[in-house]
Amino acid sequence: MAKSEVQPESPYNEWTAPTRRFSPFVALCSVGFLGRLSYEMMRTPITPLYATHLGAPVELIGLIVAAVTIIGIVVKLPAGALSDLFGFRRLMVVGALVKASGPFLYFFALSWPILLAVRFYHGLATAIYAPPASAVVAKVYPNERGYRLGIYNGAENAGVVLGPVLGGGVLAVTAANFDITFIVAGVIGVLALFAMVWVPKDQSKTAPVASEPGERRQLGQALRQLGIGVREIIADPQIRLVSLVEAMLWMGIGSVQAYLPIYALTIHLSVWEIGVLAGAQGVASVLSRPIMGRRSDHLKSRKPLIVVGSLICIGTLIAIPYATSFFVLLGLSVVFGLGTGIVTPSTMAMIGDLVTKGNYGSAMGVFGSLWDAGHAGGPVIFGFLLVALGYRTSWLIMALVMGVALIVFLLGTRHNPPTAA
C-alpha cells in the first residue's frame, strides 16, 4: 500500500494558496477559538459551581469536571487514527457538531449524576476534534510546525482565556442564572460549527467504502495498515516520553481548573474574580505560545523550553495554596499560564518531528490520549487528596509528580535527544 505523501496536486495546497479569499488557517483558528470559548465556559467556573449547586459531594466535583477529559483518553487515539484514513476534516466536523449541541443538554442535568453523564457526552467534542486539527497543522506546515501550532493553540487558548471570564460574567450579571449561561455557550458552539465551512476538505489516505466485496477487502487492508501505523507510534519511546511530560503538566492544570474556584471561595473571592483568575492563566498562555513555538523551531532541541516551562509550573503549584488574596492568586495564575505556554507548543511540535511515516493523526491521537489521562486524573486524584490532606499538601504532591515525570523525560532523552525539524 502506498505511503501517505502530499503530492503537488493535493488539496493541502488550498492551505497555502494565495488566491483564497479567506485563509484556511484563519478559519481553523476561528473554529478552535469559538469551540474552546464555548467548551471552557462550561468547564470552569460553571461546572464546579453548578455541581455544587446540585449538591454533588466535594470529592466528586473533580470527577464531574474531568469527565470530558476521561472520554478523551479512550476516544482521541482512534479519532486520530481514523482521521489518517478517512481525512482530517470529516472527524473535525463530527467534533464540532458535538461541541455545538453539548451545552444545550445541560438543561436536562437536574441532578449531579445526570450532569456527569452530560459531561461525558460533551467530552466527545474535543476528543474527536483535537487530534485531526493538530495533525493537519503539523502536516501542511512542516517548516513552521512549532510556530503554526503555537498560533493555533494560542487561538484555542484565547477561548480558554475568555470562556471562564465570560461564564463568570454571565453568572454575575444574571444573579447565577445557569440556564442563560448554557444558552450563551450553545450559541457560540453553533458559530464554531458554522466556521467549519471555510476549512478545506483534505485528501484521505484511501477512504474506502465497504459496499462491494472488493471494496470491503480494500477497507480491511486499509484498517490493518492503519493498525500497524498506530502500533509503531505507540512503540516509539520518544513519543511516550514527550507525552508523559505533557500528561503530568495537564494533571496539574486539571487540578487547578477544578479546584482553584473552590479554593477561591474559601478565601471569600467573588464569582467574577474567580472567572478572572482562570482567564488570566489563559492570557499568559495565549501570548506566550506563538513566541515560544517559534523559538523552539530555531533551537537545536526543543527540550530546554520543556524543562523551563515545567519548572515554572511546578513552583507555581506549590505556591497557590499559600495565597490569601485576589491579586496574589492573579499573579500566580499568570505565571502558571506562562509555564504552560512554554511547554505545550514544544511538546506538540516535537511529536510532529518524531513522525516518520505520515501518521500524524495517530501520533496526535496517542499524544492526546496520554495528555487527557493526566488532565482527567488530576482533578479526580486531587479531589480525594484534598479531603484527606488539604490544599497545601495536595498541590505539593501534584508538583512532585510533575517533577518526577520531568526527570524521567530528561533521563530517557539523554542519549537520543529529540531535535527540532
Describe the structure.
The protein is mostly helical. It has 13 helices and no strands. The chain has helices at 24-53, 58-86, 88-105, 112-140, 145-173, 178-195, 213-235, 237-266, 271-297, 303-319, 326-354, 360-389, 391-412. The longest helix is centred in the first third of the chain and has 30 residues, at 24-53.
* Number of separate helices: 13
> What structural category characterises the helix and strand content?
mainly alpha
Rg over CA atoms = 21 Å
* Mean of pLDDT: 81
Main β-sheet description: none
Q: Per the principal axes of the C-alpha atoms, what is the gross shape?
A: globular
Distance between the termini: 27 Å
How much of the residues is beta strand, in percent? under 5%
Give a concise summary.
This protein has 421 residues and is an all-alpha fold. It contains 13 helices and no strands.
Compile the SSE list and pairings.
Elements: H1 24-53, H2 58-86, H3 88-105, H4 112-140, H5 145-173, H6 178-195, H7 213-235, H8 237-266, H9 271-297, H10 303-319, H11 326-354, H12 360-389, H13 391-412
